[in-house]
What we know:
This protein is α/β, with parallel strands linked by helices. 41% of the residues lie in helices and 21% in strands. The strands form two sheets. The protein has a five-stranded mixed beta sheet with strand order 2-1-3-10-4. It has a five-stranded mixed beta sheet with strand order 7-6-8-5-9. Helix 3 links the parallel strand 1 (55-61) and strand 2 (83-89).
Amino acid sequence: MTTRRLVLSTLLALVVAACSSGGGTTTSATPASAAAPTPPASPSPGSPGTAAAADLEVYAAASLKKALEQVTSVYESANPGTTLTVSTDSSSALETKIEQGAPADVFLSADVTNPQKLVDGGFASGDVTPFAGNTLTIIVPTDNPAGIQTPADLAKAGIKIVAAGDKVPITRYATQLVDNLAKESGYPADFAASYAANVVSREDNVSAVVTKVELGEGDAGIVYVTDARGSDGVGIVEVPAAANVPATYGGVVVKESPDAEAAAAFLTWLAGTDGQAVLAELGFLPPGP
């Protein structure tokens, strides 16, 4: 009897031990899929969530406003996850804002002087990158009430000329154009002085000059060719090619940009083949030397 009880006790102990061991395995075991999860596929370069994606604040010359609408569409399509927010004004005003700490990533100017100021002052990374060219023309309201036919007419008494502020790049270019015209055959000796006397307003930027002429609040203004072609509300009076003034647009990456690498990539693209193709469709020229 004692032997039988011993055998039964031993068998019972073995069964309990087996059941206890099997229960622990079932409870604590982790499925293979959970133990070794398949890592998510890495996003391809340029797709949302990659390091290349960025929200870039672009400060740009007023004369680039319409062009950058097209540039933004093309660039964002080619670089998913990157967005461009564009703010436009005169180049001189934007340069001052950046010096004062405005949160820009890229500065696109209608000249190379203003971006060079940022480089010289330690507010930009790298050198100025020329990315576009332009030339000048004269605009008049579509009905041309003053009857302006040639640039020489800008010096006639009673003509109301709309211009931009002294620090705005278009003003420097326009002043040079007027000086060049004064040397042309058939222009009066006091052409430059008479032109200056006919200026009735000084606007914040070149876009404001176009608007004021469109509204008939002035008889004429000197603007970039691209601004004139982009308006349905003005007529164009051509200037002699020999007297025209080439404008070179330059850009820089703002030193305090939190996305300096993405900002530099955009500026490189704009100055490269793809960016130049977009700008050329809108009437801009390749950048000058």
